[in-house]
């Protein structure tokens, strides 16, 4: 018996993907650096399907049908290169190496190009859904060459999550496109969690609503337009009481958020692309600030807030829901806009409707909203920005008064709402007729002769600031 796919790296994610493949009827060859993990998996779950136990990469490769498919699930970075280096001499042209970890898309581009020279396919695959998703059906975002997808696609589609029967897996684009899209998914995940956190903070700090009661509010919200996995699990976490202290579980957690790097990568890439992804950036910075515990302790004693009291409107809880919804839409709009910019930069034909459709089930940001995002980008009339799609323009217009009230209230009470407020600033910036960027251009021209364009004439100009202040036509140095 030969295996249809081999999996190397059997920590939880790798093990669960291997089990998912086997449960779907594929024969899976297993390999791990230490054989104990392989044996543990076989002992516990060997009955779930057809597995082949292998003790070395050579044995793994020998056990595979051709063209071979080897899925790597090891820590991103050097470990991936190390496994690739060991595998390459054992493989033949047309064989496929699949990297299903959270690798940086630039690494994936580099690896794909290097392996293509050897006639091998390298496919960077974004996989989302955590441990449970890997086992029961994740959202899958494969990059690499289109040809590799012919052999790999049916398998990945079979093990992926399904949204109303549709597989949450489709070929995203060449080389690192899959990992890029997964990275942006994670950036949006950061923003989603941050806006949930801001809603929780405002409800608690401004309106005094305790976690258990908030759990009911989030459960209610989960029935409407905010319906999503993250809102659902927010209710679960807020409802939980710590058995050791009998306090709300959220109160015994140290308030410093960790991060493995994908959110940060998204922001670095957004900056490089010149894409105004402020919601994701503020979410990453908010995690950074939360982790500066020493400074925060000093500041709590030293820095004054001068908060003023605010009378909350009756509609406050609903206001917060709308602020959360509007900010969430802005984060998605920014993420999608960034994908558009990346498609141009890297020559990918990213289909934004399809990407939104893959995120409707299986992944961490799965949400009702994504079905609407998909519909907004489907068809000929693709909006220049998600916010301009009629359904979203209307939804935001309805939310704006409440959104402004919540941001104003939070500002007056000294409650930080970086994503609520920066998303509102993005929205207002986008719709504003004249931006102070005009003044920025004037300043740049004065101190650095950086030139400017006029609203009333074609061409590029410079004012001779240190001379007679007459204007000359200039070479564009924008
Ligand atoms: C997923 C998640 C996952 C990510 C974790 C942790 O889609 O399944 O995005 O890939 O690694 O959520 O991310 P942070 O540690 O950076 O929060």
From TrEMBL:
Keywords in alphabetical order: Gluconate utilization, NADP, Oxidoreductase, Pentose shunt
InterPro entries per UniProt: 6-PGluconate_DH-like_C_sf, 6PGD_dom2, 6PGDH_C, 6PGDH_Gnd/GntZ, 6PGDH_NADP-bd, 6PGdom_BS, NAD(P)-bd_dom_sf, Pgluconate_DH
Pathway(s) this gene product operates in, as recorded in its UniProt entry: Carbohydrate degradation; pentose phosphate pathway; D-ribulose 5-phosphate from D-glucose 6-phosphate (oxidative stage): step 3/3
Gene name per UniProt: gndA
This enzyme's EC code(s): 1.1.1.44
Molecular function as annotated in GO: NADP binding; phosphogluconate dehydrogenase (decarboxylating) activity
Function: Catalyzes the oxidative decarboxylation of 6-phosphogluconate to ribulose 5-phosphate and CO(2), with concomitant reduction of NADP to NADPH.
Gene Ontology BP annotations: D-gluconate metabolic process; pentose-phosphate shunt
SMART domains the record matches: 6PGD
Protein name, entry field: 6-phosphogluconate dehydrogenase, decarboxylating
Membrane spanning stretches: none
Subunit annotation: Homodimer.
Organism of provenance: Arthrobacter crusticola
Binding sites annotated in the UniProt record for NADP(+): 9-14, 32-34, 74-76, 102
Family according to the record: Belongs to the 6-phosphogluconate dehydrogenase family.
Start and end residues of each 6-phosphogluconate dehydrogenase C-terminal domain: 178-466
Binding site for substrate: 102, 128-130, 185-186, 190, 260, 287, 444, 450
Keyword NADP: yes
PANTHER family: 6-PHOSPHOGLUCONATE DEHYDROGENASE
Keyword Amino-acid biosynthesis among UniProt keywords: no
């Amino acid at each position: 018996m030969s295996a249809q796919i081999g999996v190397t790296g059997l920590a939880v994610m790798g093990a669960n993907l291997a089990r998912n493949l086997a449960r779907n009827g594929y024969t899976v060859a297993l390999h791990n650096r230490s054989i104990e993990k392989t044996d543990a998996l076989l002992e516990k779950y060997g009955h779930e399907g057809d597995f082949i136990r292998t003790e070395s990469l050579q044995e793994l490769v020998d056990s595979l049908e051709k063209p071979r498919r080897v899925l790597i699930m090891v820590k991103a970075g050097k470990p991936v290169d190390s496994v690739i280096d060991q595998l390459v001499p054992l493989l033949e042209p047309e064989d496929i190496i699949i990297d299903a970890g959270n690798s940086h898309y630039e690494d994936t581009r580099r690896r794909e190009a290097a392996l293509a020279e050897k006639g091998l396919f390298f496919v960077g695959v974004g996989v989302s859904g955590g441990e449970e998703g890997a086992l029961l059906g994740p959202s899958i975002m494969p990059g690499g060459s289109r040809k590799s997808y012919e052999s790999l696609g049916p398998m990945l589609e079979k093990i992926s999550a399904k949204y109303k029967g549709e597989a949450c897996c489709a070929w995203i684009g060449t080389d690192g496109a899959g990992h890029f899209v997964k990275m942006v998914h994670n950036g949006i995940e950061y923003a989603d969690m941050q806006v949930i956190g801001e809603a929780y903070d405002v409800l608690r700090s401004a309106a005094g609503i305790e976690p258990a009661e908030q759990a009911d509010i989030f459960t209610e919200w989960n029935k409407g337009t905010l319906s999503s996995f993250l809102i659902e699990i927010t209710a679960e976490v807020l409802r939980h009481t710590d058995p050791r202290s009998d306090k709300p579980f959220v109160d015994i957690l140290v308030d410093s958020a960790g991060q493995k790097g994908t959110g940060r990568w998204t922001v670095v890439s957004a900056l490089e692309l010149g894409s105004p992804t402020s919601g994701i950036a503020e979410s990453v910075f908010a995690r950074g600030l939360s982790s500066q515990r020493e400074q925060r302790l000093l500041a709590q004693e030293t820095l004054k807030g001068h908060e003023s009291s605010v009378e909350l409107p009756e509609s406050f809880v609903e206001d917060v829901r709308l602020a959360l919804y509007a900010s969430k839409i802005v984060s998605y709009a920014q993420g999608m806009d960034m994908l558009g910019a990346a498609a141009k930069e890297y020559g990918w034909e990213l289909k934004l409707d399809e990407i939104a459709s893959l995120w409707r089930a299986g992944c961490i940001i799965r949400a009702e909203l994504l079905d609407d995002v998909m519909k907004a980008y489907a068809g000929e009339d693709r909006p220049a920005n998600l916010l301009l799609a009629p359904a979203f323009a209307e939804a935001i217009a309805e939310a704006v008064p409440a959104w402004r009230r919540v941001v104003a209230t939070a500002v007056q009470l000294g409650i930080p709402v970086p994503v609520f407020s920066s998303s509102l600033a993005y929205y207002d910036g986008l719709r504003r007729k004249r931006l102070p960027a005009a003044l920025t251009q004037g300043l740049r021209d004065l101190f650095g002769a950086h030139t400017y364009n006029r609203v009333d004439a074609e061409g590029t100009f410079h004012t001779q600031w240190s001379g007679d202040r007459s204007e000359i036509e200039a070479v564009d140095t924008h």
